[in-house]
Amino acid sequence: MSDTIGVGLIGTGYMGKCHALAWTSVKAVFGDGPRPRLRHLAEASTDLAERRAGEFGFERASGDWRQLIDDPQVDVVSITTPNAFHAEMAVAALEAGKHVWCEKPMAVHLADAERMEAAARRSGRVAILGYNYIQSPMVRQIEELIGQGAIGTVNHVRIEMDEDFMADPEAQFYWKSEASSGYGALDDFAVHPLSLIRVLIGELTRVFAQQAKPYDSRPTQGGGRRAVETFDIANVLFEVGDVSGILAVNRSAWGRKGRIALQIFGSAGSILYDQERMNELQIYRASGAAAGQGFTTVLAGPLHKPYDRFIPAPGHGLGFNDLKIIECHELLRAIRGEPARVIDFSAGLGIERIVHAMARSHRDERWVRP
Ligand SMILES: NC(=O)c1ccc[n+]([C@@H]2O[C@H](COP(=O)([O-])OP(=O)(O)OC[C@H]3O[C@@H](n4cnc5c(N)ncnc54)[C@H](O)[C@@H]3O)[C@@H](O)[C@H]2O)c1
After folding, report:
1. What is the residue with the minimal CA distance to atom 2 of ligand 1?
2. Are residues 280 and 321 in the same domain?
3. Residue 369 counted as domain residue
4. Residue 1 reports pLDDT greater than 70
5. 162 lies in the same domain as 119
6. 80 C-alpha vs ligand 1 centroid, how far in Å?
7. For the residues of 180-209, what is the DSSP string, one character each?
8. What is the overall mean pLDDT for the chain?
């Protein structure tokens, strides 16, 4: 493999900046693999593309993402545009022989996600999704603890994902309230907990879901109001074989900023984790003298890989953007043909099928098998 890899970035909003930072830092943090060259950036307009290319350090800028796909110097494409664009952009990139790092969710419609997965298979290129939370050193530690039997046999999981960016009833209508972006909290939020459940517990076998809309309309830029077309809240009962579970997601939960609260209960103990405090986990072991039993807090440090690649000292903590750097490194490992911790398009399609099963369950008011 060459010493460098040409990077293309489509979209430069919240996630676009995270991808740009990851591509800029991955070589310095991990030391191995090719050095990313920031070749081409595309945005919705040429003006914005040129401004961002200057800020992020990309060599070329386009107001038309197809020019980026046609660029022979681009080997891998980061897709960080709104959900409705993912399928068209990912399929085009794969057909042009590029590797793809696409933000979650895969696509709005299941048929599009299936097209993306088929395109990835046909291309033989690496195609992964932005499921950054599975990269957390503490989540890896939880996986290890479960594997070691530290809490016995897992029998119940409860996972909640809450933020408050849509909690204000007067917050302006934007693409996340449009049906073209998907169901709402199911596509936007539930897919993240589903990636964690997939890695830590296994594949969901049955779901029973309810979606809710806290506000019927939101103000528009022009001064009027527009009906909200998506559900900001979803509650789901689920099963992973014999393990029962509850998933609750809410984009309008005042006070919750980046909560992904995970509770895993087993026959010999429990594990708690919350993304808002991503540098610690809590474990309760039902062993020893009962009077001395209680939750122990474990702080992240260099023993929790790959924390050590960022900081040699424990207790200082990683942040959200570091998860994106780890994800970028895993993508590069996959491109080199090495074992990698990623949700590829095939695994991602499994998550999409579960989301659509949840929506069917809500519609039909019954248990559904994905
Ligand atoms: N992995 C995560 O934790 C995480 C967090 C937030 C968002 N996301 C996902 O990332 C994606 C983007 O979300 P965001 O919050 O960054 O959105 P955003 O609105 O901040 O950014 C989207 C960007 O895409 C650009 N864009 C729109 N149409 C385009 C086009 N035709 N060509 C080129 N650029 C175009 C916009 O101008 C904007 O800069 C979504 O799929 C979302 O679900 C993932």
Report:
1. 130
2. yes
3. no
4. no
5. no
6. 5
7. GG-SBHIIIIIHHHHHHHHHHT----EEEE
8. 97
